[in-house]
Amino acid sequence: MQGDVSAMLSRRSFIAAQIAAGEEWQRMITPGAPYQPQEHAAALAAAERRIREIRMRDAAFDLNLPQTMVRVEQVSHSFPFGNQLWAIDADYRHGRWDSPEARARRDHHARLFNAANALCYWTERPQNDASRTEDRQGEPKIENFAACVSWAESAGLIVKGHPLYWPIPKAVPAWVSRYDLATQMKFLEVRVRNLVARFHGRVKLWDVTNELLWEPPLAELPSRSWPHLAKTAAIAAPAADVIRWCRFEDPKATLVMNDYGLEADSPKSVPKAKDGTPVTAALQRRRFLELIAELRRRGAAPDALGTQSHTGTWLSPAAQLTVYDELAQSGLPIHITEYGPPPNVPDEYSANFLTVAFSHPSVEAFFFWYKLSDRAVDLVRGLIHEKWKTRLDGRTDEKGVLRFRGFRGRYVLHLPGGERREVSL
Q: Is the pTM here over 0.90, yes or no?
């Protein structure tokens, strides 16, 4: 799906690689029982019925053209279907932006998706060829992030930024540790405010925090032990600051709290905290709800709750819906932020997972992250651009009103004589 396999490690490569600090989540990716798509046919049919109920609307457009044939063509969705721009970002950083391969990669993304997740890590571990905005003190580098944002805008994509606050050793520049906590927070504030202010109104969504349920806040970073179960208040205090900074700089941006390990446990082993507490998906969902409640009490709740969806084993449709029902108790929309298929599942699983997510009324965005097979990409394309897009021929009534039921998004109405009208539903 990312186009350049060498620019983005495959799932199996990730699992086989030596696990470094900050990559311990890889231990949670293990094969489960065989996934049999046919066993879930009835649940998927029910999901498709829900999709038509919650994702479609009745349209009535007054065209002032009585009894006229109109061809209705949906050109984009209002629901964000996206992917990360890791390989596209690397194209810019390595001087490949204008190469045929890089152009083809961008074209592929824009044809398949209507959203893009641009990367703005403070830093990242050297083993990953990642975007680093201030690996060296006083040398901010955001040209690659800016290029990705500008390209995505020009392609008509909804732009997301990832991530703003990720308190994990590999993602906090080494030079930051020279300072006391108050000064570290000041550096973080400058970073967050500058990014959100510079891209005000252009980056519509931000992963405002990342993996707080598994990692320590900055104050506890020196004593990190994975999984690090910090107290809710200790997590909430700096997170609330980050959210407030973002709100000031761009009040209309959608702020997503992003985390992992929320859906399913590994069938082989469940991580344990330093005190021996088994850290299950159910525990982390409960802690996430507690964190959202604490942030709301502090007047700094985010706009959406993000679940990465790339650890544990595969989920049945019923189990997947149960997870979303539980997370929806937060009162916030749910974003699928970094989907990747579990090991050894057939290509149908990714399409089925997307279908069930799209069928839940609380899910408001779906972003892929890890590479899919070509066949899985084709199945996903068939859903987004065929099954879930509205194309039909209609006729206006005697008053010139065109009525139809369609998926929410932007449309072009093709009228007699070659006239086109753009509308939104």
A: yes
